[in-house]
Write a structure and sequence with these properties.
binds flavin mononucleotide; 761 residues; binds flavin-adenine dinucleotide; alpha/beta; 27 helices
């Protein structure tokens, strides 16, 4: 087979090597615009896993690479005058120049032809004369641009500015992050050793800081001199150097995230940065390039045709690429938003940095550096007011809101049971909530409980508008208080435009088949074409509903609830005021966000006035309508939270969506937690995170990184009311209280857990 690799970086060279290794009769040429020893940048990082992969593919080049590796285990973070060190991270680095030299040498040995100083302008002449053309021409791939209508690239230019420098200062004991506050804003460096006397030193900052520094007007030498001044105390008198006379490296850049819809066209295939990029902060660009080269070489030989090989290559590699790009996106977004975290205590800041890509979990950090993590856990407990010296997971730290102390950070999220009769809770609710309270969560929410019959979502929803409701709730709360140390939160709501609909397990949000009652909302916009058109509330409706909330609050207080939540999310009545999708009012309750918040805040203030001062109130919001600019976006949610905070709301319960049938949520593990993170760290308000959080590890990492103060789990508590107690057993934490009659069950569970077994089937 006659093969041309257009571009002699890691992708092109390693594919040439891998193809030759599989069939030495291939006629392979690598065409590279630079001279053999020219290169941009400094060192690259490879993981042990990548080393294993390249060893299996070609032990000879792997061994050569291994011999030139600089290894380090530690990550050091310089921040606010402290240097925090954690270990067990296992990296290795190699100079990019050295790596290319070794790959060129190996390629030559195997009979690959290397043509340097040859500029490729188009893939066409190669496609006509070769069986296979590999477009390995890097980030700014000309071939990808030439065939853009086939590859359909999507480039996302990211916000930070960075420059890739080198230094002879030694960073050989740790991968080092340095965060420096200057008169122009924060600026930071990622530094790592890659050979005996040289380290990579990438300097990065926000666009605003970069502009204030005036880097845009500086020459390369002036930029470097400025960076040397900023980081002088870490450089030990050594200079910063730029080695790139080339396109990349000397200049400040914005990282472009590249993704292509297709990776092949006719006999041309994209590889490495030309196909997809991963931000340098997770150090995976070279890994992706080399592992994609292995995969393509494999399929070239296992498949019957070139096109079958392309299809397999794409199928195989795309998942891995998307996985890494997702981790890279989390990581680069963390750096883009780093100013949000710069108020954190150094311990929490370090934890947040280490877990930024969400690839390293809480327990994984323990495997890496137990002592460091236990120190961080001790710090967390101390901050929560615990001074026993016992090291416990963050989820088992207490939390205080006004005079209410929750024994731990686990919350049973509100979940409608659709089991009420005329708004009255039944024995179902007694048993259901009783079980969840026995199960160990610190706070148990009751479902959205409606302030009037017409404010119910469905005929099965609970209410707080009749004496028998108050009595039934009192019985449930009394049981929980008598038999457990869980606290109870009453979520009050009004269904608004989503009222008069079917039970959750029937057709959700669809109108009743018979017996519909009239509904109302901020504006006369039906939830869907099938739902009723709600009455746009006038002032007397607003007064009446506000007073209903107040009456329900007083009943909740008499029923003994410890906490109250106002439901302002998910498209129900108060939410219908907040989102611009359903609030089209022309009065002072419509228009800008401050106006749209006016009525929900009025209700909150009225409720707050009658709720005892020592008891807290939370507000649940939809922090993202998931419809883009037309609806609420996370930055609007920060504004909403500011308004709630100013009004005296104690906690923001950060949910999202369910406000429009047009919503296109992006689901995933902990997918709504970034909204809580943003609100908590931009406003300083306490938050609850919710949404697809199901493992103790998720909870601990959210809390430890300061992304929320409390964590709500809904569906996991339907499947297992004892979720918290089981988590405590899995961690061999003896301090969570079990109901006395269940102690033999607890003892067995702990014994089994200690042996790595469970009683579950
Ligand atoms: C600041 C920074 C830090 C990084 N750190 C790391 C790290 O720690 N670990 C890691 O794994 N990766 C890192 N990377 C990414 C890594 O450098 C790339 O992902 C990797 O080099 C991709 O390999 P490639 O062969 O696809 O592209 P490249 O290495 O870019 O190679 C493409 C080659 O094609 C040549 N070429 C381009 N156009 C033409 C043309 N028209 N004609 C002829 N030749 C052409 C270029 O000269 C180049 O040699 C970093 C990148 C940056 C910017
Ligand atoms: C059956 C069911 C009923 C729900 N009812 C309510 C409710 O009454 N009030 C509310 O705010 N959220 C309600 N939710 C949303 C949950 O509180 C939670 O936000 C959502 O399920 C995401 O959390 P999870 O991934 O842990 O399930 C309900 C969810 C479920 C599954």
């Amino acid at each position: 087979m006659k093969i041309a690799c257009l571009g002699g970086g890691p992708a092109g060279l390693y594919f040439a090597i891998s193809a030759k290794l599989r069939d030495s009769s291939h006629d392979v040429t690598v065409i590279e615009r630079n001279r053999p020893d020219d290169t941009f940048g400094w060192g690259v990082v490879l993981s042990q896993e990548t080393l294993d992969n390249i060893s299996a593919n070609d032990p000879v080049s792997a061994e050569a690479i291994r011999r030139h590796f600089a290894y380090w285990d530690d990550i050091a973070v310089h921040y606010r005058g402290q240097r925090i060190l954690s270990t067990g991270h296992g990296f290795c680095g190699i100079g990019r120049k050295q790596l290319l030299r070794l790959l060129q040498q190996r390629a030559r040995e195997l009979g690959v032809k290397l043509r340097f100083e040859t500029e490729v302008d188009s893939a066409a002449p190669f496609a006509a004369t070769h069986d296979l053309v590999v477009a390995s021409d890097g980030l700014n791939s000309r071939i990808r641009t030439e065939l853009a209508s086939h590859f359909k690239p999507d480039t996302d230019i990211r916000k930070c500015k960075y420059v890739w420098l080198g230094t002879h200062q030694k960073f050989d004991d740790a991968f080092t992050f340095v965060f420096e506050e200057t008169e122009h804003g924060w600026i930071w460096a990622h530094a790592y050793q890659f050979d005996a006397d040289t380290a990579t030193f990438i300097v990065e900052c926000s666009q605003a800081t970069w502009t204030r520094f005036g880097f845009g007007e500086m020459t390369s030498d002036q930029s470097i001199a400025t960076c040397e001044r900023v980081f002088a105390k870490y450089l030990g008198g050594h200079a910063l150097m730029s080695n790139a006379r080339h396109l990349r490296g000397s200049a400040w850049l914005n990282f472009p995230r590249v993704l292509c819809e297709k990776w092949s066209h006719e006999n041309i295939v994209l590889m490495g940065d030309a196909a997809a990029t991963a931000h340098f902060s997770i150090g995976s660009g070279t890994k992706l390039a080399m592992e994609s080269a292995i995969s393509m070489a494999d399929y070239l030989h296992s498949e019957v045709s070139l096109h079958a090989a392309f299809a397999k290559y794409e199928q195989d590699r795309r998942v891995e690429v998307l996985r890494l790009q997702s981790a890279a996106r989390n990581s680069l977004a963390w750096f883009e938003d780093v100013e949000r975290y710069l108020h954190l205590d150094p311990v929490q800041f370090n934890y947040s940095l280490l877990t930024r890509s969400q690839r390293i979990s809480h327990e994984n950090l323990r495997l890496r550096d137990k002592a460091w993590l236990e120190g961080a856990e001790a710090w967390f407990q101390q901050r929560a007011g615990v001074n026993t010296g016992r090291i416990r997971r963050p989820m088992f730290a207490p939390f205080r809101l006004r005079d209410l102390t929750l024994k731990n950070r686990i919350v049973v999220s509100p979940m409608d049971q659709y089991r009420a009769v005329n708004g009255c809770p039944t024995d179902w609710h007694l048993v259901h909530y009783g079980e969840r309270a026995k199960g160990g969560a610190g706070l148990v929410f009751i479902e959205m409980t409606c302030v009037s019959p017409e404010g119910r979502i469905s005929p099965g929803c609970t209410g707080m508008y009749a004496p028998e409701h108050e009595a039934a709730w009192t019985r449930i709360v009394d049981f929980v208080h008598a038999e457990t140390d869980a606290k109870m939160c009453c979520q009050l709501g009004h269904s608004g435009p989503k009222g008069s609909t079917q039970l959750g397990w029937e057709e959700m949000d669809a109108p009743l088949e018979q017996g519909n009652w009239p509904v109302m909302a901020a504006s006369g916009i039906p939830w869907s074409p099938r739902n009723q058109r709600p009455k746009a509330m006038d002032r007397s409706d607003m007064d009446r509903v506000r007073d209903q909330f107040v009456a329900a609050t007083m009943m909740a207080e008499r029923a003994g609830f410890d906490m109250l939540e106002l439901h302002c999310a998910h498209g129900y009545l108060l939410s219908s005021f907040i989102t611009p999708l359903t609030n089209k009012r022309n009065d002072e309750y419509g228009g800008p966000l401050a106006n749209r918040m006016r009525y929900p805040l009025e209700v909150f203030r009225a409720v707050r006035a009658v709720w005892p001062a020592h008891k807290p109130i939370s507000v649940r919001i939809s922090a993202n309508d998931w419809v883009g600019e037309a609806g609420i976006q996370p930055q609007d949610a920060v504004e909403i939270a500011h308004m709630l905070q100013d009004a005296g709301v104690d906690v923001c319960d950060v949910s999202a969506g369910q406000t429009s049938t047009l919503a296109r949520p992006v689901y995933g593990r902990m997918f709504q937690t970034p909204f809580s993170d943003r609100i908590r760290n931009e406003t300083g308000m306490a938050t609850m995170a919710v949404g697809n959080i199901y493992e103790p590890d998720h909870v601990n990492s959210i809390l430890m990184a300061g992304r929320a103060d409390l964590v709500c789990l809904a569906r996991p508590h339907l499947a297992n009311p004892y979720w918290t107690l089981h988590a405590a057993a899995a961690f061999n934490d003896p301090d969570e209280r079990w109901p006395a009659p269940y102690l033999p069950g607890r003892d067995q569970l702990y014994r089994l857990a200690a042996r790595g077994e469970t009683t579950s089937v």
